[in-house]
Amino acid sequence: MEKSPFDIVIVGAGAAGLTTAIAAGRGQSKNLKILLVDSRGKVGAKILVSGGTRCNVTNRKVTPFDFQGGPSHFIKHVLEAFTPDQTKRFFEEIGVDLILESTGKYFPVTRSGKTVLEALLKESEKCGVSLKTGFRVTGIEKKGDVFLLRGETGDLLARRVVLATGGLSLPETGSDGMGLSMAASLGHTLIKTTPALTPLTTNDKDWMELSGITLNAALTFFEDGKKKAECEGSLLFTHFGYSGPVALDISRFFAYSDPKHSPEIEANFLPGHTPEALNKRLEIFRKKHPNKQPKSFFIEEFGLPERFVETFLRKNEGKNPRQLLHPIAHTPLSVTGVVGYRKAEVTAGGVDLKEVRVSTMESKIIPGLYFAGEILDVDGRIGGFNFQWSWSSGTVAGRSAVLKLP
Ligand SMILES: Cc1cc2nc3c(=O)[nH]c(=O)nc-3n(C[C@H](O)[C@H](O)[C@H](O)COP(=O)(O)OP(=O)(O)OC[C@H]3O[C@@H](n4cnc5c(N)ncnc54)[C@H](O)[C@@H]3O)c2cc1C
After folding, report:
1. Does residue 1 have a pLDDT over 70?
2. Which of 46, 79, 342 for a ligand 1 pocket mutation test, highest count of atoms within 8 Å of Cβ?
3. What is the structure's pLDDT at 219?
4. Residue 130 C-alpha to ligand 1 middle, in angstroms?
5. Is the pLDDT of residue 10 over 60?
6. What residues line ligand 1, using a CB cutoff of 6 Å?
7. Which of 60, 185, 198, 386 to mutate to test the pocket of ligand 1 (most atoms within 8 A of CB)?
8. Global pTM?
């Protein structure tokens, strides 16, 4: 064990840990001993796989309403402390030019997460932060003013600790929940965790047979018959259920729900059209094409995929064209569950924000302990929001952790 403590040890070298390291390194007024540790030999695995390896770094517009979990005023404060505009400038400064796609998502111009990871690692080294890989922290205790971090291959001492260990999603990337257990062992309350941004499963063979078909849809989540959430975007039928951004976005609500409250998901396969407008379109279509079947109406007027329309019509056999307009906008989807952490892009739940100081990310329970990233009870929708949370919370944690070090 090192005899003199590190000034700051950051546990976890993912998006949040690396940003924390850079903010701390840049913010130090004297030569501090800052150490970034990670259980993996190769760090930043999530940055590399993100956005289909293209890494959707942030979004044109990021608001607290793009997130679920802790209170939105907390999320707002943190996002304002390091905004998407500052994020873009930060990446440009470290040599990662970003490009805006029509969806509002920002990617590196190289369309490669590797560019992002390499730039972050280089900058963190430039800021004087040491990196220790293959070091899994298994426990933390505070003895007086110093933290003792127990590792599988030895112990470390630190005057300040930042937990940036991620949550439970995609555990093979290193986020196996150990960080959450350590936060709990230090007295922090954990808000129940569930997989989020993960595909949904079904037992409806008709939809499963459409595996590979994508269409635009709005999904509404109900509990006890009451609408609780609505998402719109691309829906992908798979051999086990539903995927695509809209299914991933709604999954956290289903995963969180209690079967006692009759969770249901309803699909609108023609979002953005009122029943009146649909009726009118049908009337005009039938006048123009009196001999055409309803199938042609859905395919020709709205561009719905033919195989999808055939399945939809089979499921609604016996209904006349006008009667089909209700189910096309209100089809109950049979959902048996969510795929789980092995496919989840993020974790819902985590360290309760009530026990964290909003302007510093410091624990209200253990002075000198900080949090950043997915370990906290914040999860964003698809579109670069989760990384933005990591960049923003990491920057706040790093900037604060270097202040007033004795
Ligand atoms: C497939 C996929 C695609 C995604 N695409 C996007 C996207 O395009 N845009 C977007 O905004 N978000 C995306 N996300 C979400 C985003 O990757 C996460 O929100 C973000 O990486 C969280 O960062 P983090 O640093 O908090 O945690 P992580 O990235 O999970 O990093 C935590 C690190 O801590 C280490 N660690 C954990 N426990 C210990 C321990 N006990 N001791 C030492 N080290 C430890 C781990 O090894 C890991 O390196 C995606 C996620 C996945 C899984």
Report:
1. no
2. 46
3. 98
4. 20
5. yes
6. 11-17, 37-40, 43, 46, 49-51, 55-56, 136-137, 164-166, 169-170, 173-175, 178-179, 345-346, 373-374, 384-387, 390
7. 386
8. 0.97
Token pair in block for residue 41: 């030999």
Domains annotated on the chain, with CATH: 6-195+344-401 (3.50.50.60), 200-338 (2.40.30.10)
How far is Cα 166 from Cα 347, in angstroms, rounded to an integer? 8
Contact 206, 222 (CB under 8 A): no
Q: How far is CA 218 from CA 19, 33, 280, 332, 352, in A?
A: 35, 51, 21, 12, 31
Cα gap 191→347, rounded to integer Å: 11
**Model confidence at 2, in pLDDT bands (50, 70, 90)?**
low
Phi and psi for 102 in degrees, rounded to 5? -60, -20
The position carrying tokens 């990491």 is 394
